[in-house]
Write the structure tokens for this entry.
Amino acid sequence: MLAGSGRFWQRIVSFGVLRGRAVLIESLQLLGWGPFFAEQVPADGGLVARRVVAVHRTGHALGDGESECVVPLGRSWQRLPVEARPCVGDWVLTDVAGTRIERVLERRSVLRRVASGGKLDFQLIGANIDVALVVTSCTAEFNPSRLHRYLALARDSGIEAMLVLTKADLAEDVAVYRDQALGLAPNIVVETVNALNAESVRAVGRHMRAGATFALLGSSGVGKSTLLNTLADRRLQATGEVREDDGKGRHTTTGRFLHRLPGGALVLDGPGVRELGVADVEEGLDRLFEDIEALAERCRFRDCAHDTEPGCAVQAAVLAGDVDESRLASYRKLSVEQRRLGAELAGQRHRGRKSERLARRERRGDGRGG
């Protein structure tokens, strides 16, 4: 055996060969691979690990750090609840040829929102995210209530979040927006930038580490695509105009993509969100509004709505200037929405589990994963 060859073969991923060449762990690590995912892979399964780097109408683009392939989802996957299907950022196991997805590995985190429409349904934003970059602008678009929703989604998934305020060059007083942003959550990191200026954007880049996955979240027109292009030092996404009358933009990003920046950080980008419904984020609300939750423990009545009830410790804190009134309004609104959707969601999940068991039996029966 050649000197050093043993160490080389220790680097080989033990679960397959991709198109006649060994897939090195180092290649997968470029896309965020780590022990959490490696421990889920059977040693003798003959399967190959890939990450979903884009979702198209025709299929899912999968990468291994060296090349990509596009795999359509079969009917058995389509029968599953949306939360069980692979989404951008997921790690999946495929056959060696890369023609079908056999399994989605357990996620470390997942961002999801309630889809628009009358029916309670979820839309997955992305999986295995380390940090949510919640992007807004120093314009009329700045909306604390909407930002609370993004932060609640992130906190519920255990994802670190930071706020990026773009278009700082257009604001008469950037400090006004920055102070409001700092008051949205305890210890929140806030960066104000001109997304067109590389020097300004370095303030965001300093937080981005190699191998970690960052998700860009925000409404259309706030400058997410511009920020991404400047971070990458090249055009990755198209940018669009913003309407002058209301400061709102049109979707310029029409799919969900995972990009690797020159420094090694991974950035998930997708369409802007106009309606951000939340459900099943009770833990996220508790974390985001932990100061209000602590005060609520001191209210005279256990079912206090923190409105006009006597002995309300939360209202006392508002009057004393310790809690912002708009922050309390967001807390109350999100809490009501969370409770209202809870029962409906529980019933939907029960039905989804039955469908998932049926689909798995069908895949085992015909020997196909897709």
Notes: The longest strand covers residues 48-55.
